[in-house]
Amino acid sequence: MILSAGIVIVRKETKEWKYLFLRAYKNWDFPKGIVESLEGPMETAKREVKEETGITDLNFRWGDIFKETLPYSGGNKIARYYIAETTQSTVTFSINLELGRPEHHEYRWLSYDEIKELSPKRLLTTIEWANSLIYQDTSGDGKWNEPLHG
């Protein structure tokens, strides 16, 4: 089984959390990459975020918890996602030396509803997990609530 590791990156915008989503061709995903030998999954996730987005300001305010996807790509891969907050809004695509071009074509900061619309089915449980961590809906009125931790 091949393990990839990535990060669900969120940013507070006014009174709403936005999720960073990247597009490569027709595929939307969070920044992630294959865990290399002599590297732990968290190290991989941070490295991939820096390489793919230029974001270095990551606050793991929810700790080092993670959510793994079900096997995909013919049952040979699993992706592990951590969650972190950033204050950086600008994404910089660097050139992937193996490809000779950036790995991704587009990025968007999306609301919870917007990201669910673009997301592949395999990421929906990860998005639900992340959303449950960052919102504490105790009022039941659907209005802004503070993050669970912080």
Percentage of residues in DSSP E strands: 25-35%
Based on secondary structure, the structural category is alpha+beta
- Tell me the span between the first and last alpha carbons: 35 Å
Q: How many domains is the backbone divided into?
A: 1
Characterization of the model:
It is a single chain. By secondary structure, the chain is an alpha+beta fold. It has one domain: Nucleoside Triphosphate Pyrophosphohydrolase. The protein contains 3 helices and 9 strands. Strands 1, 2, 3, 4, 5, 6 and 9 form a 7-stranded mixed sheet that branches. Strands 7-8 form a two-stranded antiparallel sheet. A hairpin with a 2-residue loop joins strand 2 and strand 3. About 6% of the residues have low confidence.
How do you describe this structure in short?
The protein is an alpha+beta fold and 150 residues long.
Give the helices and strands, then pairings.
Blueprint: E1 2-13, E2 16-24, E3 27-29, E4 32-34, H1 41-53, E5 67-68, E6 77-85, E7 95-96, E8 101-102, E9 106-110, H2 112-118, H3 124-134
Parallel strand pairs: 1-6
Antiparallel strand pairs: 1-2, 1-4, 2-3, 2-9, 5-6, 7-8
Keywords:
seven-stranded mixed beta sheet, alpha+beta, Nucleoside Triphosphate Pyrophosphohydrolase
